[in-house]
Amino acid sequence: MASMRFDVVTLFPEMIQQASGFGIVGRAIDNQLVDLVTWNPRDFTEDRHRTVDARPYGGGPGMVMMYQPLQDAIINAKKAGDSKARKVVYLSPQGRPLTQDLLVKTCELTQLVLVAGRYEGIDERLIEAEIDEEWSLGDYVISGGELAALVVIDAVTRLVPGALGAQESAQQDSYMNGLLDCPHYTRPELIDGKSVPSVLLSGNHAEIARWRLQQSWKNTRSKRPDLLNEMALSDEQAALLKEIKTKS
Ligand code: 4FM
After folding, report:
1. Are residues 228 and 177 in contact, defined by beta-carbon separation less than 8 angstroms?
2. What is the Å distance from ligand 1's center to 94 Cα?
3. Residue 136: in which H helix or E strand, if any?
4. Closest CA to ligand 1's atom 1
5. Three-state secondary structure string covering 30-50
6. Could you give the count of Cα atoms lying within 13 Å of 121 in the half-sphere of its Cβ?
7. Are 24 and 168 in contact (CB under 8 A)?
8. Nearest to 229 by CA among 241, 246, 247, 212
9. What is the average per-residue pLDDT within 87-113?
10. 126-140 confidence digits (pLDDT tens)
């Protein structure tokens, strides 16, 4: 993936544009490694009041997103990019749980259209007609899809070649190996009677790398054992894990 184009369909475009102006994502946009365009269904309304919501069939509280303005916004977002290497994703709790593996695969695309809903949901026929995949951040409910779209934009941007500086990429390695991160320490050497693990002061970089991997394993085993069960181990990793097990 040389670069990535994000088209976000949202009633709150400022929320997407403003939050994307900072840090790694902001720099990637400035450097034209990432393009970010927003599409507001309100701009595709045809009535005097610019209506974007509608009452649900079957009754009950709350509204759903009005079909026509949302569909027109999605269709125009699609047209702006490359149909062969594009996916249209709707963010909702009903979606496939987002993982780093899914994000890595997403990098084969050149355009990602992210549909951020509001209210109680969108018409099921619109999902059938326009959405390729439904993704979820996790088993909880937020007030709209914008924060979820921002999470996807951030996590994918980190995988665009050149988006991370040299320092940031080296760090990334430790997150990408399927393990939790190792502990970090900085100055001073002694805080409230607690010292920094001596290996980190040793200057022995091979020892330090080994210690960090060992800590990552321990962290993962105690906090997220489910991650280890799903992991395929290399011979080297299996040997190291065995060593850690016998030590503690
Ligand atoms: C989704 C509100 C669609 C309104 C939401 C509409 C969510 C999640 C989430 C709320 N998105 N992972 N969990 N969205 O809660 O992705 Cl129309």
Report:
1. no
2. 8
3. strand 133-136
4. 92
5. HCCCEEEEEECHHHHCCCCCC
6. 15
7. yes
8. 241
9. 98
10. 999 999 999 999 999
Give the three-state DSSP class for 4. Answer: strand
Q: Ligand 1, from 89, 90, 91: best to mutate by most atoms within 8 Å of Cβ?
A: 91
Please list, residue by residue across 19-41, b when 16 or more beta carbons sit within 10 angstroms of its beta carbon and e when fewer do: bbeeebbebbbeeebbbbbbbbb
Percentage of residues of the chain with pLDDT beyond 70:
97
Token pair listed for 146 = 């914008």
Asked whether the beta carbons of 77 and 113 are under 8 A apart, the reply is: yes
pLDDT in tens, 174-199: 777 899 999 999 999 999 999 999 99
CA–CA dist 179, 218 (Å, integer)? 9
> b/e map of 144-155 (b: 16 or more CB within 10 Å)?
bbbebbbbbbbb
**Max CA-CA distance within the chain?**
72
Asked if residue 37 lies in contact with residue 77, where contact means CB atoms within 8 angstroms, the answer is yes
**Cα 171 to middle of ligand 1, angstroms:** 31
Can you count the helices (H) and strands (E) in the chain? 10, 9
- Among 171, 169, 164, which Cα is nearest to 24's? 164
With the CA atoms of 5, 149, 95 and 67 taken in that order, what torsion angle do they form, in degrees rounded to the nearest 10? Answer: -90
248 band by pLDDT with thresholds 50, 70 and 90: low
Residue 6 and residue 230: Cα distance in Å, rounded? 31
Q: Which amino acid is at 6?
A: F
Rounded Cα distance between 175 and 169, Å, is 10
Ligand 1 binding pocket includes 62 (Cβ within 6 Å): no
